[in-house]
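Entry 12.
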Amino acid sequence: MERLWTDCRFAQVNQHPAPVGLLLHGNRSRIKAQVALPMPCNGIQKHARQEPLQCDRTSATIQPDDPKNPSTMNRCQLSLLLITALSMTVGAVWADTHGSTLIERPAVGPGMNAYYYDADPEHWKTIFERAGREVFDRRFEIVNALNITPGMRIADVGAGTGLYTMLFARAVGPAGRVYAVDISERFVEAIEARSAEYHVENVVPIVNHQRAVTLPPESVDLVFLADTYHHFEYPISMLASIHEALVPDGVLILIDFRRIPGISDSWILGHVRAGREQVIKEVEAAGFQYQGEPVKLRRNYCLRFSKLQ
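Predicted 3D structure (tokens):
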């Protein structure tokens, strides 16, 4: 199978950086990239799983001693501010001795997602898409509650076997776009094959990494996370990347397990690191506003956030 990569060169102009193009194959493209923040790089690059999040100060557009431009702030600086704010909530970031690199400690065990890298999609389909799993049983109700309209651009982050990807593809119609984002290349390949089988032309499979969704700035209207947030090894970086990818006033939908000590079962207490209220605090600290629960679930909760300017 031909491997296709993102061309991550960016135009160097005093405005929002934009990618100069994607490698395409037929009517579909598969993207595999490493850009966590919009920074210039040379040529086409593969992703690294756990590289430090870095910001090259030389790429900033602001000149602090320029009185004509005292408030200019590029996306890299804004993302660093969001990461710093969120670190006050999660407490997992520190700077190196030069102050130019932010290093985030893993929020979950580093091996928590190891088995997904070489996952068997058919095996996991029997787990993800089965009766008794709440996000499967109530999938149509959940999708209907999101007020999706034709032409929308949606990122299904942690897409897995493509359950919601396929539902979103139908909802946004031919004019829309669904990015199926997952760290597992085998999951991404399975979604690509599933799209081809059902002649779905508006799905773009993306292999991301643990620190970023690897989407261009302001490229999506809605980001969807279903039982995925608790798998984020670097939630600060991931939330900053999601914030970056959303358009102004874009929507983040976050579904995860209710974690209530003394009530939740032992598997959830051991597997899920944070409860609902803590998750809300973390997401709000990343530059989002909590807007309530569009669907009331029993075993899970479904949270809606909007991106703040």
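Annotation: The chain has a mean pLDDT of 74. The chain has nine helices and 13 strands.
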